[in-house]
Amino acid sequence: MASPRSPPLWGSTLDGFPPAWPVAAAVNRHCRDPPTLPPPLLLPETAFAHLRRQAAALAALRPRMNACCRHHTPLPCARRAWTDVLDEFCTDEFGVKTRQFHCCRRHGAARRRCFSQETPAPTWDPVPAWDPNVAWDLVTEPPFPPGEPTASNLGNICGLRTLRPGPPGPGARSGPRVRLRVRLEREYGRCCRNESLSCAHSAWLKGLNRFCREESAVKTGQHRCCQHGGPKARGRCFAAAAPHPEYDRELHNVSLARPGPALLRSLCGPTRLFTQRRPVPELLGAVTAACCPLPPEERGACAQDQLSQGIATLCATPRDAWRDPQGCCSWEEPERRRCFDNTYLSQVTLGAAVAPPPLGQEE
Q1: Is residue 165 over pLDDT 90?
Q2: Cβ distance 284 to 256 under 8 Å?
Q3: Rounded distance, CA 218 to CA 67, Å?
Q4: 246 - beta bridge partners?
Q5: For the chain, does the N or the C end have fewer beta carbons within 10 angstroms?
Q6: What is the DSSP letter of 273?
Q7: Which UniProt keywords are given for this protein, alphabetically ordered (predicted)?
């Protein structure tokens, strides 16, 4: 007589969950040879609700992946689908009182990295489809002359250095002003290691003196400040003429409530976020990670989707994870979104290499 079959042993995760982060080879293979549907999952009728939620997420991803094969950019589409499905899974996880999948307690890029590394063979691709460095093509030469280093602007000199343009590329326009900028930024980099104001000020004076010597070697008219006698008089003249004495050209206040093409072009370039109050970092991170790889004309709709999904996920998290000091989650839509827009997303300070549109304006 055959012994009775032992019931299957169910663990904390299903085979195949979480799904692997989409990479180009896997997406191409999926579109070329779509996998067959797996057999229905025979879970016990009671308990194991956490496995049912995982199975539902895997089932929701399959048609999204198939639809991406018909998209003109399948890889970004697949990555957005993967992110959306797992964010929805986390929303469902926080809708019950049992312990949530641990990656759901993270936000934005940290959550995506956590899920991708939970796969049997992690496939996290650290190279984004959108290269922020292409944004440097949109950055203009800083206005001349550079401001005088002071105690009040040294933080910007050092903190925003990576957002100011570097040396010009081959064939780009050069001259005494460009050479001064390149030399000065190089010296500032050395001075910023110790945040030395005296070092930065000395580099500024020496750079301007050399600039004036180079100016005098050409037949075109010299800058008026070079005609002042003595380095101190020239320094005072240049300091007074600086259009951005605080080195704050790259510092901006923006609203993330309804990002349009111009703002997204800025956000998808090199940036540094200074507003660190929640939920700004995770919402901005979700937008840039999911939307910047897309063609520019698709980013606006993507950004709205990511903000809406991010807000829904935040409002589904336990109060001890995020306290929602403005009480926005207590509202129903559309008042909830309006509350987020007006309180959390309306005044965000960031550094950006590509200037965003003025606050309240959009192209």
Answers
A1: no
A2: yes
A3: 63
A4: none
A5: N
A6: E
A7: Repeat, Secreted
Give the per-residue pLDDT at 256. 93
Phi, psi (rounded to 5 degrees) for 27: -65, -45
**Measured distance CA(74)–CA(93) in Å, rounded:** 28
Token pair recorded at residue 65: 């992946």
pLDDT bin (cut points 50, 70, 90) of residue 2 is very low
The C-alpha angle 199, 201, 202, rounded to 5 degrees, equals 65
What is the Cα–Cα distance from 39 to 14, expressed in whole angstroms?
A: 13
By DSSP bridging, strand 348-352 and strand 271-273 are: antiparallel
Token pair 């559309």 is found at 334
Query: Is residue 160 a contact partner of residue 351, using CB atoms and an 8 Å limit?
Result: yes
DSSP string, 165-196: --S--TT---SHHHHHHHHHHHHHHHHHTTT-
CB 190 within 8 A of CB 184: no
Q: How many CB atoms lie within 10 A of CB 104?
A: 22
What residue type is 210 in one-letter code? R
Residue pair 135/162 in contact by the 8 Å Cβ criterion: no
| CB-CB contact of 63 with 26 (8 Å) | no
Does this model's pTM top 0.70? My answer is: no
Task: Choose among 62, 120, 104: nearest CA to 112.
Answer: 104
| Residue 241 token pair | 């003429």
CA distance 247 to 153: 6
Confirm if 259 and 348 have CB atoms less than 8 A apart: no
CB distance 61 to 19 below 8 Å: yes
- Whole-angstrom Cα distance, residue 191 to residue 197? 8
In 3-state terms, what secondary structure has residue 209? helix
pLDDT 10s digits, 338-355: 999 999 999 899 999 888
Tokens read off for 221: 């008219």
What the block records as the tokens of 242 is: 């600086």
